[in-house]
Design a protein that fits this description.
Elements lengths: L9 H63 L2 H39 L6
Helix pairs in contact: 1-2
């Protein structure tokens, strides 16, 4: 004869199962929220760094253009030469983006999204 003391009534099992499912859903929700906050915080700090870098790049470009303008005795030639440098860089990037840049950016984003939080 089977021992009936070890068996729980069906209602207890059902309530435990409901509690388990509720707990798992809450855990999944909190995990998503944690990852979202990490990504958003990273985006905000990275946006600040990008803005600072762009401003630095802008002023460095202006400085180079004015310097080349003084050397070439024509500001138009100095700014034109800087524009030509950027055109060459843009063409290089356009031709190599599939081989190098896209892969690097995809790997970088995956690392950010799945980075474990340091404790």
């Amino acid at each position: 004869m089977p021992d009936t003391q070890d068996q729980k009534p069906p209602q207890d099992i059902i309530s435990l199962l409901k509690e388990y499912i509720t707990t798992r859903v809450e855990l999944a929700r909190l995990t998503v929220i944690e990852r979202m906050t990490v990504v958003i915080a990273g985006l905000i700090t990275n946006a600040f760094v990008v803005v600072a870098a762009l401003l630095t790049f802008l002023f460095a470009s202006l400085t180079l253009a004015f310097y080349l303008g003084e050397v070439l005795n024509s500001y138009a030639k100095g700014f034109g030469l800087v524009a030509l440098i950027y055109l060459v860089l843009a063409l290089l990037m356009a031709f190599t983006k599939e081989q190098y840049i896209n892969k690097y950016l995809q790997d970088f984003m995956v690392k950010i999204l799945f980075k474990k939080k340091k404790k």
